[in-house]
Amino acid sequence: MNRRHFLRGLSGAVIALPFLEGLAPREARASNAAPPFALLVRQGNGVQQAAGAEPERFWPSFATGAFTPAALAADQGRAVSELASHAKDLTIVRGLRLADPGNACRHSTAGNQVLTAARPSKDDCNSTLAMGESIDNRIVTQLGAPADEPLTLYVGRKTDYLDEVLSYRGARKLRAAERSPYTAYQKLFGLTSVAPGEFTLVRGRRRSVNDLVRGEMQTLLGRNDLSMADRARLDLHFTSIRDLENGIVCGLSGDEVADLQEGSTHIDDDDHFEALARLHMDLLALTVACGAHRAATLQLGCGPDETRYWIDGVKQVPFHEISHRINAVDPVLLHHKIDRKLLGLFSYLLDKLKAYKTPQGTLLDQGVAVYMNDLGTGGHSYENVPYLLAGNAGGFLKTGLYVDLGGVANNKILNTIGAAVGCTNAEGGPLDDFGDPTLEKGLVDSIVSGS
Questions:
Q1: Domain range spanning residue 57?
Q2: Residue 297 phi, psi (nearest 5)
Q3: Which pTM value belongs to this model?
Q4: 156/204 same-domain check
Q5: Helix H segments across 304-441?
């Protein structure tokens, strides 16, 4: 069933709506009508975990198994405690590895594998590419409409050294990512075809995309078959759109907004990194709320993330240098604080997903949001590569669980994510053969419900 419904304005603007019980066919109203989704957020440069003489500051200090929100909240010395408010929705997966050692540039070959579990190409150093598709691509091509593409976003500067590393259409087919939340917003709401006069009003903050579909909006809100829950979902949806617009242009003049649209210094300025990341996360929540995309990726920084983060009121040296423990005072502790900062941004995304209520729970309950790194440590380790999952994908995944897989290749977590949202293998069973064909098939059974 295609559950998507739209408001279309005379100017060409389009708003896709969240799931509304009143608009669903009667036979679908009692079912899980909101399709599961996967949102995939990637951090670079590894995390600060136990390695050599370095202390453990990333993984929980408590034993594997089920854990409580109180236990995670009390674990203040560990970066994952940043997600304590989402503990009951969280699955912490330790002990995953990237299977192919690649070549001398491990930033390149790690980026090749983190969402593909495919072999890197045999090109020189930072020229390697994945020899297979990424899981976001598989989800959309198998479960979406024929022309669908996953939403692919990027926040931070490009350095001409391993910029996009994440999303692949197939072998060697790296997908370009959108850096401007303004441009992504335009595409999501059909503003690329809006009449110039209307677009000028939107850009100048005198009109919202909501205003462009006001007539259809009022007609929809006048329907007697909308429940109170439907009306609450619509109110949140329209408010979220306006909040996104305000966030995009907050404090900017009309000329500055035009600069932002055209990819100006705001996108390249590290001082705007966190604000831009939150705007991209607003887009991620909106796009799955209205069913526009079944999968999306957000890459935080280039391959070797060179962002200069603000920590303790000080703008630090590039993160890549900190990850290699050079040119900074106490780089080990700084790396830990950057881990916490970026996990805090992921927590913001989870807050957004949980704000949407569906007949079966929150929007987060309908899908899975994944936070991952493409390295284990700043020393380029391919062991203990973090994958943190939030959401149960309609009951497919266990949550409130901490597992250590002891060195399993990451194809199994990608199989699990794909299967959770509905992907299948050639025989019609749950996806279990994603990635390089030489890898052992299967899912991470310990986090699958009923296993």
A1: 40-179+268-447
A2: -125, 150
A3: 0.85
A4: no
A5: 319-323, 331-355, 363-366, 411-420
